[in-house]
Write a structure and sequence with these properties.
CATH superfamily: Electron Transport, Fmn-binding Protein, Chain A
Strand order of the largest sheet: 2-1-5-8-9-4-3
Largest sheet: 7 strands, antiparallel
Radius of gyration: 17 Å
Number of strands: 13
Mean pLDDT: 96
Helix content: 10-25%
CATH class: Mainly Beta
Oligomer: single chain
Number of domains: 1
CATH architecture: Roll
Bound molecules: flavin mononucleotide
Strand content: 35-45%
Number of helices: 5
Length: 201
């Protein structure tokens, strides 16, 4: 076993280890809106559910030096966003939105995604996703280390939109959903073999 002190590693080296250990990761495909009304879309795989009651999710958005990414700035300013689940049909579009566009240019327009109005928040969602949920900012934390920092966003889910094809009797049909997980670097994974385990009492 190799024993490695994270303090002896660069940011890149720690990133490569952590993103290689914790996988496959779900991908939040996030829409947010700037104060000028530009709709931004971008993917984030440092994403998870925090709690079911209250319904909370988290996204971790790295800064470039001290500069916030558009998504983080929009969420902190507007306190709202929409999360979409990435599946086999929207994965290419999701990847295309990760391009580094200036804040006044919309990835949604550049990638020709279709927006749909939300019910509770002002930020629209994307029609191309079978599952999306509207969120309000619950908490924003920042973590700083040397020159770089991270915006950690916790969102409260205020509305779910679920396509009928992937939802029956309150359960999600994962084989109909075909979710995509992110591995390390450029690699992704589809659902593999599914198996069940009985939990011990
Ligand atoms: C699949 C995928 C997952 C990503 N996950 C993250 C992440 O968890 N945190 C992060 O800061 N950037 C992540 N990125 C990079 C951002 O999507 C990228 O920096 C994007 O341009 C940010 O857009 P924005 O400035 O419009 O918010 C990811 C990119 C891809 C393709």
């Amino acid at each position: 076993m190799n024993s490695i002190d994270p303090k002896a590693l660069t940011k890149r080296e720690n990133y490569k280890l952590l993103s290689g250990f914790i996988l496959p990761r779900p991908i939040a495909f996030v829409t947010s809106m700037s104060s000028e009304g530009v709709i931004n879309a971008a993917p984030f795989s440092f994403f998870n559910v925090v709690s079911a009651e209250p319904p909370l999710v988290s996204i971790s958005i790295g800064r470039k030096g001290s500069v916030q990414k558009d998504t983080a700035r929009n969420i902190v300013d507007q306190e709202e966003f929409v999360v979409h689940i990435v599946d086999e049909n929207n994965v290419e579009a999701m990847n295309a939105t990760a391009a580094n566009l200036p804040p006044d240019e919309s990835e949604v327009e550049a990638v020709e995604l279709t927006t749909v109005e939300s019910d509770v928040v002002k930020v629209p969602g994307l029609k191309e996703a079978p599952i999306r949920f509207e969120c309000k900012l619950e908490k924003h934390l920042t973590f700083q280390e040397g020159e770089t920092s991270t915006d950690f966003i916790i969102g409260r889910v205020v509305n779910y939109h679920i396509s009928e094809g992937v939802h029956q009797d309150g359960e999600i049909d994962v084989t109909a959903l075909n979710p995509i997980g992110r591995l390390a670097g450029k690699d992704y994974t589809k659902l593999g073999e599914i198996f069940s385990l009985e939990r011990p009492d």
